[in-house]
């Protein structure tokens, strides 16, 4: 699907589906619609006068098959709710919805009137980025392993045209599209890593995919294999992978070495390519979803994919430890004690709390090797976070209030909400070891906090 920007007066091919938004309480059709298609403007204005459409959130007014329209076969008006309450996240969800409807109509050419989605906290540039971002991501499907009947017609949109009304908006529109295309490609790459089945996306296969991406994106990459990890005393990674025939890897990606003097940003992502829980085995229900326990590693690898094209003037590294957590005669046991390269020892109370064991190695490596100015760790760490926040936000924990606030604000802007949880010293006693310095699980509640 191609997404492009065009000026309202520009000559264009007739669209199959034309989309615009109206806020609750709007009593007239957008003036820009009259510039584009006076007949469509007249029909919509007449519908509003007859109160056929209110603009409430989720409302839709499809106007089909009107041959008098100059610019489109069909028109879709979507309700945006109260203008003052409109946000970029609401716009993203709206855009994903109207893309689905356009597909159902088998529309090959779609046009969107962008100025009709400006309101509330959404500026014109925000609208352009949010809509192009949502359309690109909503078009994603992972169907690599599905057979495709030859006689089944495809519901594919060839082109989405985002129409702007002022000539001086052209440069902003083009830059917004370029940026969102870069991010969309990186997200697609990340989703593909995560969605592959675990028999395909093993630690070795993940490392190979990272190597291919790094070569294409011109990133520096180092892949540490088991002999390297033994030499480096990566005891957490080695302990977790003991029960699997798939051997561990650790991927390190690096961008922007000329900018080291400005400080380093380190990204660390948990990469458990399949997690059975080990000896402390998980229930069988939904265990197939444990292929997603490597999404932290996929995320930091995808971020580096985008960074290579966005080209920020910063030195950025990503570290992804990759293992499988399987039960077998050689697997680590509850009660095992491992001692990390910094001298701290950890007792394994529950082998299903394995992510923190491998992340400790990766975090130590990142800190010792790069001495980062800031470090951000991404992990599907514990189901306790789901208990606390459901699927509405990610848990956010840290020791730098300024960085935490920046991440939280970025999450609000992009629809990836985060909610800070405390890391008070009071929690330290909950993971104090019996025969070691620390335990790999806490006693009592606060599971997300003690995991971090």
TrEMBL record:
Q: Does the keyword Nucleus apply?
A: no
The protein's matches in PANTHER family, at most eight in alphabetical order, are given as: CYTOSOL AMINOPEPTIDASE, LEUCINE AMINOPEPTIDASE-RELATED
Q: Which domain of life is it from?
A: Bacteria
Organism equals: Candidatus Abzuiibacterium crystallinum
Q: Cytosol aminopeptidase domain: which residues?
A: 350-357
Q: Which UniProt keywords apply?
A: Aminopeptidase, Hydrolase, Manganese, Protease
Pfam families linked: Peptidase_M17 (PF00883), Peptidase_M17_N (PF02789)
Family assignment from sequence similarity: Belongs to the peptidase M17 family.
GO process annotations (BP): proteolysis
Instruction: Provide the Gene Ontology terms for cellular component.
Output: cytoplasm
PROSITE patterns given for it?
A: CYTOSOL_AP
Question: What protein name is recorded for this chain?
Answer: Leucyl aminopeptidase
């Amino acid at each position: 699907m191609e997404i492009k920007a065009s000026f309202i007066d520009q000559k264009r091919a007739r669209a199959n589906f034309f989309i615009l938004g109206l806020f609750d309480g709007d009593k007239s059709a957008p003036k820009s619609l009259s510039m584009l298609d006076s007949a469509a403007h007249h029909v919509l204005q007449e519908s509003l006068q007859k109160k056929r459409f209110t603009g409430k959130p989720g409302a839709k007014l499809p106007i089909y098959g009107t041959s008098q329209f100059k610019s489109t076969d069909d028109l879709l008006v979507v309700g945006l709710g109260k203008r003052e309450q409109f946000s970029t996240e609401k716009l993203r969800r709206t855009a994903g919805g109207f893309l689905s409807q356009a597909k159902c109509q088998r529309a090959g050419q779609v046009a969107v009137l962008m100025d009709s989605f400006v309101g509330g906290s959404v500026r014109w540039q925000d609208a352009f980025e949010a809509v192009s971002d949502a359309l690109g991501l909503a078009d994603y499907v992972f169907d690599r392993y599905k057979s495709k009947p030859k006689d089944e017609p495809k519901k594919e949109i060839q082109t989405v045209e985002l129409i702007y009304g002022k000539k001086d908006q052209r440069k902003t529109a083009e830059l917004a599209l370029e940026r969102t295309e870069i991010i969309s490609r990186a997200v697609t790459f990340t989703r593909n890593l995560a969605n592959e089945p675990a028999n395909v996306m093993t630690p070795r296969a993940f490392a190979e995919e990272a190597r291919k991406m790094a070569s294409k994106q011109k990133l520096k990459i180092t892949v540490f294999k088991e002999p390297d990890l033994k030499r480096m005393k990566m005891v957490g990674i080695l302990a977790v992978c003991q029960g699997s025939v798939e051997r561990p890897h650790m991927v390190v990606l690096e961008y922007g070495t000329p900018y080291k003097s400005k400080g380093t940003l380190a990204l660390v992502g948990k990469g458990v390519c399949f997690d059975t829980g080990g000896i402390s085995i998980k229930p069988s229900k939904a265990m197939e979803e444990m292929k997603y326990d490597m999404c932290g590693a996929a995320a930091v690898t995808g971020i580096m994919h985008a960074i290579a094209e966005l080209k920020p003037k910063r030195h950025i590294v990503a570290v992804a430890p990759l293992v499988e957590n399987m039960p077998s005669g050689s697997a680590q046991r509850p009660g095992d004690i491992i001692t990390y390269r910094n001298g701290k020892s950890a007792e394994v109370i529950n082998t299903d709390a394995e992510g923190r064991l491998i992340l400790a190695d990766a975090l130590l490596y990142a800190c010792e090797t790069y001495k980062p100015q800031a470090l951000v760790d991404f992990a599907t760490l514990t189901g306790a976070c789901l208990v606390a926040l459901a699927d509405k936000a990610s848990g956010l924990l840290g020791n730098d209030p300024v960085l935490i606030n920046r991440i939280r604000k970025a999450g609000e802007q992009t629809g990836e909400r985060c909610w800070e949880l405390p890391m008070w010293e009071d929690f330290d006693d909950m993971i104090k070891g019996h025969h070691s310095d620390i335990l790999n699980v806490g006693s009592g509640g606060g599971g997300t906090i003690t995991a971090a």
